[in-house]
Amino acid sequence: GESVGLHLPTLSVQEGDNSIINCAYSNSASDYFIWYKQESGKGPQFIIDIRSNMDKRQGQRVTVLLNKTVKHLSLQIAATQPGDSAVYFCAGGSNYKLTFGKGTLLTVNP
Amino acid sequence: DADVTQTPRNRITKTGKRIMLECSQTKGHDRMYWYRQDPGLGLRLIYYSFDVKDINKGEISDGYSVSRQAQAKFSLSLESAIPNQTALYFCATSDHAANYGYTFGSGTRLTVV
């Protein structure tokens, strides 16, 4: 079955630095990937998505990279700010259902 | 008002009790989902519904049941709550045209003692 995991459970960065959060997936049939941000006491919020026929997609201060060869995707956050502190989840989609990874806690130090 | 509303926000219940968690949405989405979140395990799918007449089990449906009362309402029931069902529960919605564009509620924190 599908499994989606994260390489590191925690990541600590300095304000202004770039952050990179990694994720691996196992299901080759996954055709869609999403990154979510979850702040304390809130539900996950959509950040950025990418379809399996793409290898890079950029948003505002965020970039998602997809490497289908090694089944790996990453979320890059430019100029990380204190408001970016949260848990970040990757999710892989197949048959219109999402399977979530375990999450990485990003802490931004001032 | 939130697009996806979950009630209650917090609930403490005793082992063996029946409890219902409710979810309503104003987004007009046809698809609704219930996920459970445990520390270190991410979100796991309990049940999902692609329309009012469609109910499907997710990866961890044992001990749970659902009811899709209307397009906008999807409730999750624990028939006889047990302590290992203590978790944070999230309802989510999506539109068939948007595939995976999920919108999540704020969650229900359930404690079974």
Helix content of chain B: under 10%
Strand share of the residues of chain A? over 45%
Number of helices of chain A: 0
Q: From the alpha-carbon coordinates, what is the Rg of chain A to the nearest angstrom?
A: 13 Å
Radius of gyration of chain B: 13 Å
Query: What characteristic shape of chain B results from the CA principal axes?
Result: globular
By DSSP, the count of extended strands of chain B is: 11
Structural class of chain A: mainly beta
Helix-strand topology string of chain B: EEEEEEEEEEE
Q: Name the largest protein-protein interface in this structure.
A: A-B, 23 and 27 residues
Tally the beta strands of chain A. Answer: 11
Total DSSP helices of chain B = 0
Rough outline of chain A = globular
**Percent of residues of chain B in beta strands?**
over 45%
Q: Helix share of residues of chain A?
A: under 10%
Key descriptive features of the protein:
heterodimer, A: 110 residues, mainly beta, 6-stranded mixed β-sheet, 5-stranded antiparallel β-sheet, 11 strands, 0% helix, globular, B: 113 residues, 7-stranded mixed β-sheet, 4-stranded antiparallel β-sheet
Q: Your description of this structure?
A:
The complex is a heterodimer of chains A (110) and B (113). Chain A is mainly β. Helix content of chain A is 0%, strand content 57%. In chain A, strands 2, 4, 5, 9, 10 and 11 form a 6-stranded mixed beta sheet that branches. A 5-stranded antiparallel beta sheet of chain A has the order 1-3-8-7-6, with no helix packed on it. The model of chain A has no long low-confidence stretch (mean pLDDT 89). Chain B has 113 residues and is mainly β. Chain B is 0% helix and 58% strand. Chain B has strands spanning 4-7, 10-13, 19-25, 31-38, 42-51, 54-57, 64-70, 73-78, 87-94, 103-104, 108-112. In chain B, the strands form 2 sheets. In chain B, strands 2, 4, 5, 6, 9, 10 and 11 form a 7-stranded mixed beta sheet that branches. Chain B has a 4-stranded antiparallel beta sheet with strand order 1-3-8-7, with no helix packed on it. In chain B, β7 and β8 (73-78) form a beta hairpin. The model of chain B has no long low-confidence stretch (mean pLDDT 93). The chains are: A mainly beta (110), B mainly beta (113). The interface between A and B is medium-sized, with 23 and 27 residues.
